[in-house]
Amino acid sequence: MKSGRTTLPAHVHTLIVGAGFGGIGLAATLLREDPTADLLVIERADDVGGTWRDNTYPGCACDVPTALYSYSFAPEPGWRYAYGKQDEIYGYLRRVADETGVTGRTVTGCELIEAQWDAGHRQWRVHTGRGTLTATVLVAATGALSAPKRPDVPGVESFAGTAFHSATWDHGYDLAGKRVAVIGTGASAIQFVPEIVDRVEHLTLFQRTASWVLPKHDRPISRFERALFRALPSSQKLVRGAVYAQKEGYVLGMAHQLWLLRLFQRRAEAYLRAQVPDDGLRAALTPTFTITCKRILLSNDWLRTLTRRDVTVVSSGLTAVTENGVIDDLGNEYPVDAIIFATGFTPTEPPVARHVRGADGRTLAEHWAGSPSAHLGTTVHGFPNLFLMYGPNTNLGHSSIVYMLESQAAYIADALRVMRAERAATAEVTDGAQRRYNEELDPQLARTVWNAGGCDSWYLDRSGRNSVMWPTFTWRFRRRTRRFDQENYRFTAAGEGRREAEDAGVGA
């Protein structure tokens, strides 16, 4: 990776917080349009890459094909596998950041402490771990999978062994010959458990809720295919288009015709029968909700791993930790040397929301009160000149989030163009526009499998609202974000915001 900036400017027009897929994609989009654009990216870690830099657990990989899980403007003909591995995707992001000039506009080791809207000067005052600066426009591109969720379990502080979250894997701890408890059976656990099971003495898996599992049709990409992609880039575009079309087909079942999901469920049931011959274990691993209500897990060795004699599946949550073990819901204790939490993240309560204060002085988290909402998942009333990447209701259950992020990047780029053309100092979505948008989404979501499929997933926030998922085809989101809908925004011209602030008694 090329070296980035080491110091902060006093002021920057566009400040992007986070250098993962969202931040890199937006910065690259803006720099393609104007290589001299006044923008800066700050990243709390020591390198770009986001979740693909941080998650280094054994077996870490993507469950969306690399043909689609990549930027359309930065095709990679050298992918080694149909589904990208962690190191491959991390390397790809670093290369894109270098080649598009984003690296040179990035300050690493620079954590956001607080951003406060200054109405008098119509700008954001931003405090970071490396100093203070102001910004005309602030973009939160910190992602939905940036804060590991570690349950608050009684007694965990007294545990004499080693405990860590899968997203902060302790590579210095040798698992060989150890008794290991894994808490959670989601997308991370299904990848690392088969990787570590041969090394440990015994693995105890705590499964609160079973998940539907299907085979992962991964394969190495041949030298011929890679050579073809390099020689004829349009061939890789065709593959990308085919994968996109296939993925969009899943929406028919997830959001429009739920009965179609029975076909997928029968396939998953057959796969479970083939992999798990024991009736009792198979019953424990059979979900009670409609397939895709929770994320489908893709694995060729997960179910088979759970049939091993040195693996115990506990159909329970973890209720307590002792000095030498873990306790299930029934009070049974299992002696272990290490605990690995595979308990996911906090997408409905993103940490960045606690650090951004809007026009009324409240944080975004206080404004949302546990139920995030936005206009087009990108702007929030009361927070002028703030844009979100991977904001509320932009997550997918069937396709690539990169497609959604590129859609948002195009929307934000057009917003900045409109602001320049209108000579606007600020742009803020109206309360009515944001409310109408979400009143449109909620009934659509109510009919989807994520709301009506009988599961309690991380898609639902603490109010019970689905504030995470996009309810229909991704091309519809792209159509909505193709242009900046300025009719839904209030603009202030240069000088207007200052006069209003002074009239209200706000210091300039």
Q: How would you characterize this protein structure?
A:
It is a single chain. The chain is α/β, with parallel strands linked by helices and 508 residues long. The strands form six sheets. Strands 1, 2, 5, 6, 7, 8, 19 and 20 form an eight-stranded mixed beta sheet that branches. It has a five-stranded parallel beta sheet with strand order 9-18-10-11-14, with no helix packed on it. Strands 15-16-17 form a three-stranded antiparallel beta sheet, with no helix packed on it. It is 31% helix and 19% strand. The protein is built from 16 helices and 22 strands. The chain folds into two domains: 11-146 and 346-430 and 468-503, FAD/NAD(P)-binding domain (3-Layer(bba) Sandwich), CATH 3.50.50; 156-212 and 251-341, FAD/NAD(P)-binding domain (3-Layer(bba) Sandwich), CATH 3.50.50. Helix 12 packs parallel to helix 15 (474-481). The longest helix has 21 residues, at 401-421. Its EC number is 1.14.13.-. This is NAD(P)/FAD-dependent oxidoreductase.
Shape: globular
In round numbers, the mean pLDDT is 94
Supply the CATH superfamily name of the largest domain. FAD/NAD(P)-binding domain
As for the CATH topology of the largest domain, it is: FAD/NAD(P)-binding domain
Beta strand count: 22
> What is the annotated CATH architecture of the largest domain?
3-Layer(bba) Sandwich
Runs in which pLDDT lies below 50 for 5 or more consecutive residues are 497-508
- State which percent range the strand residues make up: 15-25%
Radius of gyration: 24 Å
Q: What summary fits the major beta sheet?
A: 8 strands, mixed
Protein name: NAD(P)/FAD-dependent oxidoreductase
Keywords: Membrane, Oxidoreductase, Transmembrane, Transmembrane helix
InterPro entries: FAD-bind_Monooxygenase_sf (IPR051209), FAD/NAD-bd_sf (IPR036188)
Transmembrane segments: 12-31
